[in-house]
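User: Fold this; tokens only.

Assistant: Input:
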Amino acid sequence: MLPSRAQPTLTIALLGDRQARTSALLDRTEAGLASHATVHRWDAGTVTRRAMLAGLRSGVPLAVYTGHGAPSGWPTYGGVRAIDLAGVQSIDVLVCLTCHGATRDGTGRSFAESLVAAGSARAVVAAEGDVAHETNDVLLVALVRTLVEGSATTVGELVAALRAAVPDCPYAIVGDVGAPILDSAPTQH
């Protein structure tokens, strides 16, 4: 028999800092996705930096980080810069719901640009500048709703849905706007 495409599935890694508000937000996110996705919870309150990096290296089509950010990366997990994710080459889309992920700090590329240039991610959704926690909370709820409804299969469609939820959405896509957010694997019938 010829292989056919399986129904696309969703595998997502949830990453974040140790703050209580982040943990509560990730708890709600995980609960909202539990029956619709394979969810890997790799936030700094539950796993070590080494375990988080190993998890990302194992391959995930979609990873979402929420918490503090800087032009050079995340201060969480003892500090994560683009070079720390070099060689990952298994993240299709990384959504950084944090400040400054696409901000250049005078040293050249932003964190998002560095990840895409290194081949660590096909696309990164990140902000230039400051973003209020409340905005990120609304965007994460919209992201979960979009994923559960199945109304987006690419990062471009996902960001369009986020912009519908927050019209002045401060996030942009760095990299391939057509990068998939769903798994798909051929199966035998």
